[in-house]
Design goal:
147 residues; 3-stranded mixed sheet; two-stranded antiparallel sheet; globular; binds zinc ion
Length: 147
């Protein structure tokens, strides 16, 4: 099961890092992340958790998201705004983003040729890639149609 496998990754990561404790709060945050579709920021995740009755501090949400990023369970992006956005990375293929500067829409895409170019660029230089994401800023089709 997805959630069990993700929990396992986090548990092992916390154990190996040696300084972070495995607390129920961290796993509650992981569960909430796994249930979330799309891109979200730390504040909205924090409010969702406390409004569903989870006792948690804002600082725990922020630092747990960092931990989840370090162990590859979430991706962190800075789109056109001043805040970071996260999304579930576990069990999802790597993808790229088109970001509309008018309405804020984020459109995801994957492209075989782009993946191949990235692999070539890395292997030609003996580089072992960990993650990558292309972000293209502009105006979406819907906003372009507006008068
Ligand atoms: Zn738009
Ligand atoms: Zn995405």
């Amino acid at each position: 099961m997805e959630a069990d496998a993700a929990r396992d990754i986090l548990r092992k990561y916390l154990k190996s890092s040696g300084k972070q404790r495995s607390t129920p709060e961290r796993f509650a945050i992981l569960d909430a992340v796994l249930e979330t579709q799309g891109h979200f920021d730390a504040e909205s995740l924090y409010y969702r958790l406390i409004s569903s009755g989870t006792k948690i501090s804002r600082a725990t949400v922020y630092n747990t998201l960092e931990l989840l990023k370090e162990c590859g369970l979430v991706s962190k992006y800075r789109f056109a705004e001043n805040i970071s956005r996260y999304e579930k990375a576990f069990g999802r293929p790597q993808h790229h983003h088109l970001i509309c500067l008018e309405c804020g829409d984020i459109i995801e895409f994957v492209h075989d040729r782009l993946e191949r170019i990235q692999q070539e660029a890395c292997s030609e230089r003996g580089f072992a890639p960990q993650s990558s994401s292309l972000q293209i800023f502009g105006t979406c089709a819907k906003c372009r149609k507006k008068p």
